[in-house]
Amino acid sequence: MSASEIVNKVWNYAHVLRDDGVGYGDYVEQITYLIFLKMADERKKGNQGTKVPTGYAWADLVKLDGDDLERQYRHTLEALAKEGGMLGTIFRKAQNKIQDPAKLERLIKMIDKEQWSTLPADVKGEIYEGLLERNAQDVKGGAGQYFTPRPLIQAMVEVMQPKATDTVADPACGTGGFLLAAHDYMADQEGGLSKKERRHLKEHALRGNDIVDSVVRLCAMNLYLHGIGGDECPVTSNDALAKEVGDDRVDMVLANPPFGKKSSITVINEKTGKKEQEKLTIEREDFWATTSNKQLNFVQHIANMLKIDGKAAVVVPDNVLFEGGAGETVRKTLMERTDLHTILRLPTGIFYAQGVKANVIFFDAKPASKTAWTKKVWIYDFRTNVHMTLKTKRLVKNDFDEFIECYKVDNRSKRRESKKNERWKTFSYDELIARDKTNLDIFWLKDKSLEDTENLPAPEILAAEIVEQLEAALVEFRSVELALMSSED
């Protein structure tokens, strides 16, 4: 069967399990456990791959049925969760969510019919990516929070051009989209790779991290299906912001850190007895500003992750570009300590979380200096008069062709403004630093929908935009509410 046929087959079975209360996210996790065990069994016969402890392998499952099967599966998950390396990462805190033994048996037999290890890595990856994308589309929460549009990832990797010898990291890796795209680009080097480069690419080139255990599991499996990683897993489950960056820095960071509420915890007010939100400010000696804003903290963290001359491309919401206080400090310091050379303004309607207004900032790390490293910032406005939706007008890779051409990957000194391309404009450091709060949320194109009522977008597009704006406003209102509650404390 083709990859799409297998995706449809395993996804259709999700609807059967849905009737038993197994959510789509849980289903993808159960598929992850079972496909991994099946592949480990196939690779064991070929004397390769990760070894599963005796008594908990695929062969111990397929021979059982009924309650014996459910019991063996549950014990398998419990045992493998205690292992280290790739096994421990994929099965960390694993639980059986399929309580009906008959349905579990049917799922196992469906997976057993396929020879997963003989499928090319790109086909296996396509199957798994297909499941993850379907999950993100069908579930409003959960997966959509960590699923970055693949065309955007591909465009970012294309202009960043990671080399086969580089170390590439993503401190909020989600399901591994950036890491996989970087791997594919690094593997496709002209002239081929040496044996040393191939080993580096497989075992040491990629580093991922995410705070959510279940997401790390999906990422680890995604990498495994693409032939990445050995016994040691390249992704970890931690709070990336919890501790300072050590000496082990990287050549490149590609990331889309989580959007949403500022870091906070729920506490009980001793006077009223009511639950309230308390902001969590992160204090680190390597940070330039102390704030509870997660996005600003990730920008600082990522800048500190880079080696000298290391490069970063990071998706950030609009507030990172205009917020005052700590935001202004972060922007000024970023332009002083790095070369913040490019900002890509993204259209709305491309993320599964509605109402998101985001950008990609590109910057290069530089050694300490008495003068600012940023001399000019080039901004590409891919938002004004651009209408995208997840269903009727989806983002595709070709949408970024003009930006990639303007970027001048091989030689940024060749960048030029032109009347022909009004979306591409440059601003000097002096201009930017003189702006109120060093505001980098800059736009100059006229919104045609405001000046020409005869050429308004279609009603469904207008309705979608109104919903996005209202949802974005609600997010802002909630953040203001939390700030007021914290100030009262």
Task: Give a written overview of the molecule.
- It is a single chain.
- The protein has 489 residues and is α/β, with parallel strands linked by helices.
- 44% of the residues lie in helices and 13% in strands.
- The chain has 18 helices and 11 strands.
- Strands 3-2-1-4-7-9-8-10-11 form a 9-stranded mixed sheet.
- Strand 5 (264-268) and strand 6 (275-279) form a beta hairpin.
- Helix 12 runs parallel beside helix 14.
- The chain is globular and about 70 Å long.
- The model is unreliable at 140-146 (pLDDT under 50).
Brief summary of the model shown:
This protein has 489 residues and is of the alpha/beta class.
Structural class: alpha/beta
Task: Spell out the helices and strands N to C.
Answer: HHHHHHHHEHHEHEEEEHEHHEEEHEHHH
What is the total domain count? 2
Regarding CATH, which class of the largest domain?
Answer: Alpha Beta
Q: Could you give the order of strands across the largest sheet? A: 3-2-1-4-7-9-8-10-11
Global mean pLDDT: 86
CATH architecture of the largest domain: 3-Layer(aba) Sandwich
CATH fold-level assignment of the largest domain:
Rossmann fold
